Amino acid sequence: MNKYVLTCAPMWLVMVLLIACQGPQGPAGPQGPTGQGCTVSTLNAGSLGAPNGGALVSCANGTQAMILNGTNGTNGTNGSIITPVQFCTNSVTTYPSTFAEVGFCINGTLYAVYSANGGFETQVVSGEYGSDGINASCDFSVSGCNVTDN
Predict the structure, then answer these.
(1) Average pLDDT over residues 87-115
(2) What pLDDT sits at residue 82?
(3) Alpha carbon distance 28, 23 (integer Å)
(4) Which among 79, 128, 143, 147 has the fewest CB atoms less than 10 Å away?
């Protein structure tokens, strides 16, 4: 006599059993309360304590919320112009073989990343420097934000 053990039922069989074993649907729940809408009206400048105008939200339950228009703030100070400056000006960066190093001129002062000691951003004062860019090495001079190859 052969004994068979059902180890895995096909998905369609599981679905048929679940559908066939479903009980009757329950009764519908009670009707929910009627919603309470709100209206929005525009407030003109100077009306209802709104010096610059705004909006008034009024709801059926008697609550209200006023939203006021603000005033424009004062202009901020101009930001800094940041200009990239390439060292070794005769080199052309060509990915992936040639990378000329660059600094950034911010408000007339040149900054660059110095790679010693883990690397850090520093000011590059006027003087003579050397760049060891990948396939773009050179000696150059700095005067303010102006760079010339030596």
Answers:
(1) 91
(2) 95
(3) 15
(4) 79
Half-sphere exposure in the Cβ direction for 75 (13 Å, CA): 3
Average pLDDT over every residue of 50-64? 92
Task: For residue 117, report the phi and psi dihedrals to the nearest 5 degrees.
Answer: 55, 40
Specify the pTM.
0.48
CA 52 to CA 63: how far, in whole Å?
22
Q: Would you state the pLDDT for residue 11? A: 55
Cβ within 8 Å of residue 99, ≥6 positions away: 93, 133, 134, 135, 136
* CB 101, CB 131: distance < 8 Å: yes
Each residue's pLDDT tens digit, 125-146: 999 999 988 999 999 999 999 9
HEC secondary structure over 106-146: ECCEEEEEECHHHCEEEECCCEEEEEEEECEEEEEEEECCE
Domain boundaries, the chain: 38-68, 82-149
